[in-house]
Amino acid sequence: MSQKDVGRRLSRRRLIQGSAAMGLLAGFDSMMPAFARGRLDNSNVYHTVRDGADIYDMTIARTPLTIGSRVSSQPITINGTLPAPLVRLKQGREAIMRVTNRMDEPTSIHWHGVLLPFQMDGVPGVSFPGIKPGETFEYRFPVKQHGTYWYHSHSGFQEQLGHYGPIIIDPAEPEPVAYEREYVVVLSDWTFDAPGDVFRNLKVAEGYYNYNQRTVGDFFKDVENMGWGAAWSKADMWGKMRMSPRDILDVTGSEYTYLMNGSPSATNWTGLFRPGEKIRLRFINASAMTFFDVRIPGLPMTVISADGQPVRPVETDEFRIGVAETYDVIVEPTDIAHTVFAQSQDRSGFVRGTLASRQGLEAPVPPMYPRTERGMAAMGMGAMDMKGSMKMGSDMDMKGGMKMAGDMDTAHGPMKMNGNGEKMTKMDAPSDTVSLSAVPTAGRPISHGPDNHGPGAAMVASKPQSRLDDPGVGFETVNHRILTYSQLQSIDGWPDKRPAEREVELHLTGNMERYMWSFDGKKFSEVDGPVKFYNGERLRLILVNDSMMDHPIHLHGMWMELETGAGEYRPRKHTISLKPGERVSALITVDAPGDWAFHCHLLYHMEAGMFRVVSVV
Amino acid sequence: MMIRIKQVTGISLLMLAAGTSAAAGTGVQAEPDWALPVHDDKVFGQILVDRLEYQRDGNDEIALWDAQAWLGKDRKRLWIETEGKTDLSTESGEIENFDVQYSYRLDAFWDIQTGLGAQSTFGADPNRERYSAIIGLQGLAPYWFEVDTNLRVTDDGDVSYDLEAEYDWLLTQRLILQGRGETLVAFSDVEEWGVGTGINNIGLGLRLRYQFSREFAPYIGVSYTRYLGNTKDLRERGGEGVDASSFVAGVRWWF
């Protein structure tokens, strides 16, 4: 039975005790999935084991739920809960998922980050026709990997309405990670409006949800801080481009209720622990549109895996988690209660939960960081062009300016000083760090094609930079450690040691005026064929962000080994978040024949056209 | 007039439909009867009543409308604009324009628009109407100016050019001061319509609106119009005023 198969020897008893302690909670909120009540074992009634295969029966339906204090008839649940139940699999076994659609619209499940035959990938129109109302589709695939992943609908806007859940795959061999307890922490954004209406608002009225736009007062604040000349030239630069430095998230806290394991802040999702325990928290950002900044005030977190893949342990105080990314961290509570705090990237809202030594305890909830603006780096005008912004910093000297060419650290210097750039936070290097070498694509000239991507792109990054050691916008006032991609290093490297034989470059493009999002200025409906990968090749994928937004870019079916400068210890990811004006590259072992989706994981960007099919032929 | 507008509508819809084909980006394994993975080519539409307002200049009371509607996809749209006013005491007025245009996104920030427009008067005096072919640009200029500009040729061959620009100052996230300027330049005298060669007029306005929601924002403001050159002479001869400053109150509303 499943009990026998639970891989880790971690105290089953404690898990059971934990669930008993949370029985009370279960009483008044039976719509909460078992994992949110701390039950991460496979005692799930929908799960059976036969002939070495984990079999799940999952029923997708609309279920009216109370979220916060409001009832909604919108939620899409799986087996009655939001988020959907935990799927716990085991590396080396087979997974059989029987998914029944009890809605009156087609649906699908995509197993995010799980390597499988393309027909099982669950993207309607790419890997299969979708699951029609009343139909049952059986997914069947061998489980090759382990780690924290998730699953969600790939049909329309269903993912916005609760159609997402966590996956834990236990390793065949025990991991060298010690902990006594674990929790899944699923972060998401909920709207009481129809997602189609949200999309329409974005389409017809730019900035519809942004209540943090620059005002006349902000201009005079700039004048106060940097003088008339600098304030004018800043306004001039943004005005010329018709871009807003305050355009950080498209859908904000003015619309969303942020959820942690399905609970808003008021309901306070609580994970219980016993003093002295080490806890593994498996964070999953299942949002439609929200980047979260996550911290547990007063408690350092040791990141042990990213996107399900183990990384060298790195201690940090905060991390930004892009949509669809996952991070596993180990924490060791020092107090009787700790707040788990996740604020949206634009500081328009947050959700908190609590790690507590008994039910009902709370810790102080910190204020959100101040709202912020994007700096000039977001325009993707690195190096020499940055000099233009030098005029802004009243306290800059020319020496600093000279250094700026090709040196992003210094280039960010003035931004930091005038207090409204995207700050470069210097981190203590991990003790056993591999010396970072240059990213292979750094300094290369860039081409945007003859028409700069056409009307689909409102701007292009003339000199995009890798900003992998930049935590991004919004941490200007923060003095603690913030995780960056440059700190992620794989444990032993990956099996394929070949250099890239071929390069594919794609640009992330958008035009907010019409809410058009695309690759290379062309929406999915405008391209003339799939992106071709050749089976067996070693490929370098180069991504250039020609827009003012952060984009989490997800490749189905194959890993992307992110070239961070860590040489062979580059981390491998299913979703790479690119900051505005950024260029990154990743090595891919093309070994998965078939068609795969490749897209921005911001739900409304994807539906607006930022989607391609990759055909491995 | 309606017949002509219908024709334009028909032509525009045809042009909207042209170039629409099934997405070609699907993979090599996809079956033809599968639904598309994303639907990025949908038709949207919006009706925006930019100004629906009451104007008062001394004892003159005027109701004014300025509205637009569009229907279509990201790059090709059917675009309808109308503007006009009526004197509340005489109940006569003018539909200054009713334009039905095909609008094409030719640049990240600009649409080129072309179509037909109608202009007519109503009320006590004998009603007049005329039609024109239009070509224009509409979009967002650097520094966030909303610009709409057209070149018109009437059925009598008279040519004119008009320009409108709006700029929003955000005082707070919901309290917005809008500056507005407009002008019209004619290349021939058309006395019947009170149009003289040269710059006809300059209109300036300031409107302070409060956005209760993105869709609904009542406002108050001031508006000033001054007639110039030959147009001014024409109006003086006809006993009409050559400038007007008004207090305005109205609502901006879209859905």
Overall description:
- The complex is a heterodimer of chains A (617) and B (255).
- Chain A is of the alpha+beta class.
- Chain A is built from ten helices and 33 strands.
- A six-stranded mixed beta sheet of chain A has the order 13-12-15-20-17-18, with no helix packed on it. In chain A, strands 24-23-26-31-28-29 form a six-stranded mixed beta sheet, with no helix packed on it.
- In chain B, strands 1-2-3-4-5-6-7-8-9-10-11-12 form a twelve-stranded antiparallel beta barrel.
- With 255 residues, chain B is mainly beta.
- The radius of gyration of chain B is 21 Å and the shape is globular.
- Chain B has one domain (2-14, 48-254): Porin.
- The relative contact order of chain B is 0.13.
- Chain B is 10% helix and 58% strand.
- Chain B is built from two helices and twelve strands.
- At the A-B interface, helix 4, helix 5, strand 32 and strand 33 of A face loops of B.
Name the features:
heterodimer; A: 617 residues; alpha+beta; Immunoglobulin-like; six-stranded mixed β-sheet; 33 strands; 13% helix; disordered N terminus; B: 255 residues; mainly beta; Porin; twelve-stranded antiparallel β-barrel; 12 strands; copper ion binding (chain B); Copper resistance protein B (chain B); Cu-R_B_prcur (chain B)
Q: What is the count of β-strands of chain A?
A: 33
Unreliable residue runs of chain B: 1-6, 17-21
Shape of chain B: globular
Q: Identify the most extensive interface between protein chains.
A: A-B, 62 and 38 residues
Radius of gyration of chain B: 21 Å
Kindly provide the name of the CATH class of the domain at 2-177 in chain A.
Mainly Beta
- The span between the termini of chain A is 40 Å
| CATH architecture tag of chain B | Beta Barrel
Please identify which CATH superfamily of chain B we are dealing with.
monomeric porin ompg
DSSP strand tally of chain B: 12
Name the poorly predicted regions of chain A. Answer: 1-28, 383-436
* Helix percentage range of chain B: under 10%
The CATH homologous superfamily name of the domain at 2-177 in chain A equals Cupredoxins -  blue copper proteins
| CATH architecture descriptor of the domain at 2-177 in chain A | Sandwich
Task: Determine the CATH topology of chain B.
Answer: Porin
**Helical content band of chain A:** 10-25%
Structural class of chain B: mainly beta
Largest sheet of chain B, if any? 12 strands, antiparallel, barrel
Number of helices of chain A: 10
Protein name (chain B): Copper resistance protein B
GO biological process, one term (chain B): intracellular copper ion homeostasis
Pfam families (chain B): CopB (PF05275)
Organism (chain B): marine sediment metagenome
